[in-house]
Amino acid sequence: MAIFVAIGTLGSQFLWFPTGIAKAFPVQHAVNVMAAVTLGPVPAVIIAFAIGLLRNLLGIGTLLAFPGGMIGALLAGIVYKFTKNKIAAGIGEVIGTGIIGAFLSVPFAYLLMDTSVGALAFLPGFLVSSISGSIIGVLILSRVKTTSFSKQAFPTKT
User: Fold this and answer.
1) For residue 95, what are the contacts with CB-CB under 8 A and spacing of at least 6?
2) What burial letters (b/e) apply to 81-93, b meaning 16+ CB within 10 Å?
3) Vertex 137, ends 136 and 138: CA angle to 5°?
4) How far is CA 155 from each of CA 150, 151, 152, rounded to the nearest angstrom?
5) What is the pTM of this model?
6) How far apart are the first and last CA of the chain?
7) Tens of pLDDT, residues 23-64
8) DSSP E strand stretches across 7-157
9) Among 58, 80, 112, 149, whose CB has the most other CB atoms within 10 angstroms?
């Protein structure tokens, strides 16, 4: 989990773009998909929270990292848990962050950031960021060879 937090936090400094009052961080979404697939929904949410917190403490993020990143990580993890499909997990991240997170960011921005904008103000940036990050995450996962540690460490006799 710490490695994912480090990748997400450091990657945010190098790959981001402004989207109105928010900042888009595709690396966050790539990490969300990879963590959801490899660790599950709860660790993925914890990782997304930690990355958002660190980005805000370092001054390289906005408060919108919390509703966007955490919902996307949760939905990606839940979708993968039931489908066992990496692409479906990426789609879950896009729906969770790009759509649900964008809509939940409206009251969040109004209450905590003193900004009154409509839901459509967040939707384009959140979608572009989550789609590009999810593609990166799925591509990385497709290149990583998955092995089971328990099968290698404790081979069964046949």
Assistant:
1) 75
2) eeeeebbbbbbbb
3) 95
4) 8, 5, 6
5) 0.84
6) 35
7) 778 899 999 999 999 999 999 999 999 999 998 898 887 777
8) 17-19, 22-24
9) 80
